[in-house]
Amino acid sequence: MNSRGKAILEQDPEQEEKIITISEKSPEEKLYESLKKYELPDYLLYTGSGGANNWLKLDGAKMFPVARQLKVMLEENVSSIVRFIPACMSLVSVGVGSGEKERILLEELIKKNRTEKPASEKVSIRYYPVDINSHFVDLALEEVKDLPVEKKGIVAFIEDMPLLKKHWHLPVLFCILGNTFCNYEPEFILQLVHENLEQGDLFFFDANLLPTQESGEETQAARKSILGTYASRENVLFNMYPLLQYGMAPEDFDFEILLAQVDSRIGTLCRTRKSLNILKDAEIRIGTETIDFKEGDVIRMGFTYKYTYGQILAFLDICGFELLKAFLSEDRTNVMILAKKRI
Ligand SMILES: C[S@@+](CC[C@H](N)C(=O)[O-])C[C@H]1O[C@@H](n2cnc3c(N)ncnc32)[C@H](O)[C@@H]1O
């Protein structure tokens, strides 16, 4: 059981290569319940075909290069990464989106498999794209349809990892890509992954970082650049979409984003703070339900942590992971990490 309702595993009769974990509540019901509490958690921005299209559009936008830069970095380093990954591993990727990054990894793993394993030992690689949005799982499966991999898509929340792990073959390379790691509380996500991986599994994730600054001016410049990206028109529209979709007008509210300092076990961390601020009394209609917002109401949204490289390493250490290899961009703004459970 989790905050989004109890998950039940069910086979999709239409498509045998996809498993659906159905929550008791539809995305619309969840949106209604959240908005009634003046909350709009980020996962609700990604639901339905609208949410899938919005993310793909944002990911392609010039002003929002966060996940795209991480893809370029993966392309440039994939052969070095795969050197650390045994050829027999299954690939599980949670929050898979379009699955383009996973294709890059799979192509390289297949190449490695072909060169390293004699014909008699060949087993095809198993691939499990996972996302809360069924459209993304379909896209990710389609993305690799010409590759010789055994595929099973899973529609599920990462928070249901104990349930969804029953579907994959060990050992796994467990991936969280596209800066998705930074949308969770660090100790929550690392403990969840740690508890559900076995010895022999690997954990691979990426993050867009706050570069370590030498001077106050550099700190200011880094913060300005982060705010510029997150306050871009494209990202603002992405965040406003649910309210616009259900009947509010752009002049009824505005989107606010700040960079806040938050305390943690390892010291002060930098985190975005987002909200939708209601500017005039307005109504939202979701199915048969309506919610009345009043001028001055504030709807709290999700967040993204902006860690320094050192902070990520410190969290991995306290949560029981051993770093196998880190790929850090020259300007220290992007990182990819390969880790395993410490024995
Ligand atoms: C920032 S996008 C990244 C997509 C993709 N990995 C990439 O690199 O382009 C986050 C993805 O995570 C999915 N997602 C959001 N919350 C989730 C959750 N709780 N469990 C699983 N997937 C989730 C969204 O549907 C979306 O596809």
The CATH class of the domain at 7-23 and 66-211 and 308-341, by name, is: Alpha Beta
What Rg, in angstroms, do the CA atoms define?
A: 21 Å
Low-confidence stretches: 1-9, 11-15
In this entry the ligands are: S-adenosylmethionine
Explained architecture:
It holds the Pfam family Methyltransf_33. This is Histidine-specific methyltransferase SAM-dependent domain-containing protein. The structure is a single chain. With 343 residues, the chain is an alpha/beta fold. The chain has a domain at 7-23 and 66-211 and 308-341: Rossmann fold (3-Layer(aba) Sandwich), CATH 3.40.50.150. 35% of the residues lie in helices and 28% in strands. The protein has ten helices and 17 strands. The strands form three sheets. Strands 1, 2, 4, 5, 6, 7, 8, 9, 16 and 17 form a ten-stranded mixed beta sheet that branches. Strands 3, 10, 11, 14 and 15 form a five-stranded mixed beta sheet that branches. Strand 10 and strand 11 form a beta hairpin. Bound molecules: S-adenosylmethionine. S-adenosylmethionine (SAM) binds at residues 43, 46, 55, 59, 67, 94-97, 101, 131-133, 136, 157-159, 177-180.
